[in-house]
Write a structure and sequence with these properties.
12 strands, two-stranded antiparallel ribbon, about 300 residues
Length: about 300
């Protein structure tokens, strides 16, 4: 039975690859819908980009909903400096023809969780957690119905990528992250610690291009684009593919390993706002609330990605 999921996202090139991987894997994953949130770029663009990606994959049957256009109680911080003005800079992709689904993303999340059996829908946030936290606030009855949350966000050993101590998705809406991490739901976290091991080297990008399909070329051009920024910033041999780690985990969890630990979100400090304070060494008596992933079989991850993208 494929896992039923809702992808909550702010595409972003790496979000796009995560969505493509999910849509290419119907045996393991059933995408009930995609909910867009403001993050990498403003909501108008993330809602547009999600539809562009669905059309690229040939999956116009997946509904895309627009959600929250700003964090719970802060001004929006975006990341055009990484992803380009459109969020999907790199390939030239046509504007989407498919319309946005009627209604608000938060209501779609609530209605979907109420409509399905408890414990059968997984939430997969790839951006700031505003939509998820808003849904939990508006309809606390759905919290117990969530099977699991598998999210990309946070960092411990890699510390931060938007401030010295914070990862972008958590930093944009730390209050929302705090609500999600305190929800009591089973959470799997893909932090920078693992995504920075999943690097698109030139060889791996050539493999995408060699698929010689619309999807293969688009993914290669996307990763080419944001790779420039990451190589300059980190001095690494390629760009980290953050968000596809979430989808890959749903398909082949044995590619990943980590620890079940306590993770708290800093919401007060000017210095460390948005930090995921991960009790990796178990030095507090705080209860574990998240599986914090630290390692990935990077070659296995890229083999899976290339094999699945070839299907589209």
């Amino acid at each position: 039975m494929p896992r039923k999921i809702i992808i909550d996202t702010d595409p972003g090139q790496d979000d796009a690859v995560a969505i493509l991987l999910a849509l290419a894997s119907p045996e393991e994953i059933e995408v009930l819908g995609i909910t867009a949130v403001a993050g990498n770029v403003p909501l108008e663009l993330t809602a547009k980009n999600a539809r562009i990606v669905c059309e690229l994959a040939g999956h116009t049957d997946v509904p895309v909903y627009a959600g929250c256009d700003r964090p719970l109680n802060r001004p929006l911080v975006t990341a055009e400096h990484v992803h380009g003005k459109t969020g999907l800079d790199g390939p030239v992709l046509p504007d989407p023809e498919m319309p946005l689904a009627e209604g608000h993303a938060v209501d779609f999340i609530i209605d979907t969780l109420r409509a399905h059996e408890p414990g059968t829908v997984t939430l997969c946030p790839l951006g700031p957690l505003t939509n998820i936290a808003t849904a939990f606030r508006k309809a606390p009855d759905i919290i117990d119905r969530v099977q699991e949350i598998v999210l990309m966000g946070g960092a411990y050993f890699e510390v931060g990528n938007i401030t010295p101590t914070a990862e972008f998705n958590i930093y944009v809406d730390p209050e929302a992250a705090d609500i999600v991490f305190k929800s009591g739901i089973r959470i799997v976290v893909m932090p920078l610690d693992v995504t920075h091991d999943a690097l698109v080297t030139p060889h791996r990008n050539d493999a995408f291009r060699a698929l010689d399909s619309k999807v293969g070329h688009a993914v290669a051009e996307m990763t080419d684009f944001f790779e420039r920024f990451d190589i300059e910033k980190y001095g690494s041999e390629g760009a980290p593919l953050h968000d596809p780690c979430v989808t890959a985990y749903l398909i082949k969890p044995d590619l990943f390993s980590g620890r079940h630990i306590n993770v708290e979100i800093e919401t007060q400090s000017e210095l460390t706002l948005g930090m995921t304070v991960a009790d990796w060494w178990g030095v507090t008596d705080r209860s574990p609330n998240a599986m914090f992933i630290s390692d990935v079989d990077a070659q296995g991850f890229f083999d899976l990605l290339t094999e699945r993208l070839a299907r589209l």
